[in-house]
Design goal:
Blueprint lengths: L1 H12 L8 H13 L3 H12 L4 H8 L4 H8 L2 H4 L33 E2 L5 E3 L2 H14 L3 H17 L18 E3 L8 E3 H6 L9 H14 L8 H11 L17 H37 L2
Antiparallel strand pairs: 1-2, 3-4
Bound molecules: zinc ion (ZN).
């Protein structure tokens, strides 16, 4: 009975989410940073220092180190979801911020839902990764680089989360409620939230964050680079393993096997996203330099 009421409370409070949590994004960013040449690291640190939220990132990270700022910047597209300086797509535009031309929240950039034949039904995750990469390669405007970097760092991580390339019918698992007896704090949640929270607690930062990133790098090999369509299709194929098959009293339930398998998939996808983001950025910025230098 207690579980029934807990489930009722959960259903009443539930709001859809669309992202790895902050720990996942920071882990991907820390792994990516290690793949960058010192020149690319310097270029990225310089671009992020011109972002209007740079002081907030320093404060949150309690650090001025490039990798720590990059890790905070990677969570920024989620941080603006409830920030009144930014607007939803259907709302009137909020005024531009100094150094930041775009103040839309772009919630549909965080995911792409595919139909049974692999055709996109909603969301722009794959298209935006391609577009932002192109902007970073070609733009001469510093504000555009500053704007695109946190988005690209964030979205390359999102596209490696299986439920971000989900089924339109259940909104990428947001409509699927599950029971998770391993989580005393949140025994009922949507399947999407279960996956988002797998990389660790959202306050993971500093030394612990770097220890976790090193542990993951020791566990999983560097992946081949592929391209955005391949990253998308890999996630979509993993969907078959993303839904718990066992049933609890009311809902599908997370059992030992599912827990172990989903953790393994999440950890591996974080590592793959980190390597691939790092190599992508290094490729983009090294070509920018060679083009800019006569
Ligand atoms: Zn996201």
């Amino acid at each position: 009975m207690r579980q029934f009421f807990l489930a009722l409370i959960f259903f009443a409070c539930h709001a859809p989410a669309h992202a790895w949590n902050a720990a996942g994004h920071r882990l991907v960013a820390i792994i990516a940073w290690q793949q960058l040449s010192p020149a690319t690291q310097a270029d990225i640190a310089d671009a992020l220092s011109r972002h209007p939220d740079f002081p907030r990132w320093q404060e949150k990270a309690r650090s001025t180190a490039g990798e720590d700022i990059f890790a905070e910047a990677a969570t920024w597209p989620d941080d603006i979801r409830n920030d009144p300086r930014f607007h939803d797509d259907q709302e009137p535009a909020t005024p531009p911020l100094p150094g930041l031309p775009d103040t839309a929240r772009h919630k549909h950039w965080h995911y792409v839902d595919l139909d049974a034949r692999g055709k996109a039904e909603s969301g722009e995750l794959d298209r935006q990764i391609a577009r932002l990469s192109q902007i970073l390669r070609s733009t001469g405007k510093k504000a555009e680089i500053t704007n695109a970097l946190p988005w690209l760092a964030h979205l390359v991580a999102d596209i490696h989360q299986p439920l971000h390339v989900g089924r339109h019918g259940d909104e990428g698992g947001n409509q699927i409620e599950i029971e998770n007896p391993f989580n005393k704090r949140l025994p009922f949640s949507s399947l999407h939230v279960y996956w988002d929270d797998l990389p660790g607690p959202p306050w993971l930062r500093g030394k612990r964050l770097k220890q976790n990133a090193s542990r993951l790098l020791d566990q999983y090999p560097a992946p081949s680079q592929g391209d955005v369509l391949r990253w998308r299709d890999e996630s979509h194929r993993l969907l078959a393993k993303a839904y718990p098959m066992a049933n609890g009293t009311l809902l599908p339930i997370v059992d030992d096997d599912f827990r172990q398998q989903s953790r393994e998939i999440a950890d591996r996808r974080i590592v793959e996203a980190g390597y691939r983001l790092g190599r992508l950025l290094d490729d983009i910025f090294s070509h920018r330099v060679s083009r800019e230098t006569p």
